[in-house]
Amino acid sequence: MASQILVIVSLLAISCSLAAAGIEPGPLQDFCVADPASSACRDPKLVKPDNFFSGGFNVPGNTSNPSGSSVTSASVAQIPGLNTLGLTLIRFDFAHGGLVTLHIHPRASEILTVLEGSLLVGFVSSSPENRLFSKVLEQGDVFVFPIGLAHFLSNVGNGTAAAIASLNSQNPGFIAIPSNIFGTSPPIGDDVLAKAYNVDKSIVEKLKAQFHS
Known about the structure:
Blueprint: H1 2-20, E1 69-74, E2 88-94, E3 99-104, E4 110-116, E5 119-124, E6 132-137, E7 142-145, E8 151-155, E9 161-167, E10 175-176, H2 177-182, H3 190-197, H4 201-211
Antiparallel strand pairs: 1-2, 2-9, 3-8, 3-10, 4-7, 4-9, 5-6, 5-8
Helix pairs in contact: 3-4
């Protein structure tokens, strides 16, 4: 009986370890405010309320750019008190027709809430299905993007749009797929990309030119 209990406890421990895989470790103290001068926590006696604060999320970002969108982050870079807490907050703003291109967060899932306007959002499941999960969201709607899956946001309304999102990592990462493929330094070979996308090399050269101008 004792051996059976030991086996069950061991299996539960393994299951818990697997379930926690990929999740950032929890803090071992009340807080660990990031110290830019070192990799250690700032002395708690020197920590101030402003270390847990960031303002300006009520101000729309500048969307005067080719994508017609802007991203305003509240991460550990802006709020040192987020260190070890596994959170990032993002504000998206969109001009008419604005787009946040297909991208991946390799270390976080994302939950999005539309503040104003109409957004077409979607993510693509992994191979072999490559299934698109897409929906038009209106003010107050919420949508979830699972960790590591390519997703996008597009303003399909008649005016501007805005949304706010939370990600469960203090460093979720951002891989913009077009520039990640065609804007590398040094460049990926034209032969490789032409074969991968089954297109002529002249098309690959044109796409590369968009990111190396």
